[in-house]
Amino acid sequence: MITFLAAVLIFSLQTNPVLSLWVQNCKNGARFNRIRMTKDDFVSKTSECPFSKAFPRYKIDLSRLKEHSKHSWFSSPFQVISNSVQRSKLEGMLTQGEEIHWDSEVEGVSAMSLLWHRSSQMISNARVLSSEIVALPEANLQLVQNWVEIVQWMSDGDDSLLRASLLTSESSGVSVPAVRIELLGTLEDDLEDNLGPTTNTDSADVLNARTRAWVKRILVEQGICPFTKSATKSGHGLSDVGVPVGTIAYHASFAEDAFHLFADTWKAIDEMIKAGPSGKTGVSSILLAAPAFDDDFDFWAGPIFAMLEASVVAAQAQEQIGVVCFHPQYATPDGKSWPGFGHMHSLPRLQKWYLEHSDSKDLTTDDIAAGGAWQRRTPHATINVLRADQLEAAESKRMSGSMYTENIEKLIRSIGSSKLADDLEQERQLV
């Protein structure tokens, strides 16, 4: 199972949901500056020490509403009539050129997926639509409000792409969860300000082949994950605790902004939930590669994963999924600050386990940090999604201290950072 390496961290999120998520400082949440690196620069950067870093923190505050019925203030047994009245109210709020998207079928993960999809589509179709009202009568009001809060946090700045505002309120008379999404800038404007557009001619098949090669090399051949025995399936060895072996779903996102990235990610999550964990179409986990984010680990590990975790909380999906961070420049948390869920254990914890379980005890602090980092260094920036029940089952069978010590010694003593960097670069160049 891919995310067993972070099971204890994500398991904490499932059992202790939080509504304040700590992240790296980001005033430019929707976009990022792209820094070009040559092949030699990349190999040098991924093989140098130290392999640990501090993770500065900010937080996204998500409101928690009081328990109430799905339609808050105006629940009615005549739901069809009620929805018709509510739609009329929203249509009366439309501004010139604005449209309404009404979807009475989605809730939970599907609702979160739709909100990111609608916002990303607005950015893509900037010349066609600049404002839209999205109404989700079957969705939870808190989900929609929290999504608005995430967008407001990521758009805090003068160069925001979108603005989102909640329309549901007692004063407006609108009881169905509804949000107005307004376009403030365009991705083309951003690209002009950031060294021009990223050119990526790789196909999704090529990107997935690179990720698959990494899974085979690190997780399978080196045995870094005890529950992944092939590059196509995961969940091995958990049948006795009710977890079936399932397919690893490989995805590629060509997004260059957070809105499109989250649209791709939540679409994949929605598909995984609907497919179920077993059978011919069952999916056990997701590995989604996003190469446009390869050169900015700080942005990826901080704001991107904080917003992703906040979205999981907003969708109330903690009991369904957990997300884990991978990146070609991944660094082990130094333990001086909390990096958030989905990250490698801190360097002090890895050191403690190493001293408890290693026979030689001769690896340096940098060696141990590197051993942690190489377990998370993938060819491209990658989001890993696992089912929560699989994480819980893996947690029940884990032997963290000895396993992490064994992994670190395999990677550092038997292979070494220089060879690991070369192997990773070879995977990045697969065509």
Q: What would your notes on this structure say?
A:
The protein has 2 domains: 2-61 and 199-428, no CATH class; 79-193, no CATH class. It has helices at residues 7-15, 39-47, 79-91, 108-124, 141-154, 187-193, 204-221, 258-275, 297-314, 347-357, 365-374, 388-397, 400-415, 417-428, and strands at 20-23, 52-53, 58-61, 99-102, 131-135, 162-166, 178-183, 233-234, 246-252, 283-289, 321-326, 332-333, 382-387. By secondary structure, it is α/β, with parallel strands linked by helices. A 5-stranded mixed β-sheet has the order 8-9-10-13-11. A 4-stranded mixed β-sheet has the order 4-5-7-6, with helices on both faces. The protein has a two-stranded antiparallel sheet with strand order 1-3. The chain has 14 helices and 13 strands. Helix 10 (347-357) packs across helix 13. It is elongated, with a radius of gyration of 22 Å. The model is unreliable at 3-37, 71-76 and 191-199 (pLDDT under 50). Helix 4 links the parallel strand 4 (99-102) and strand 5. The chain starts with 6 loop residues before the first helix and ends with a helix. 42% of the residues lie in helices and 14% in strands.
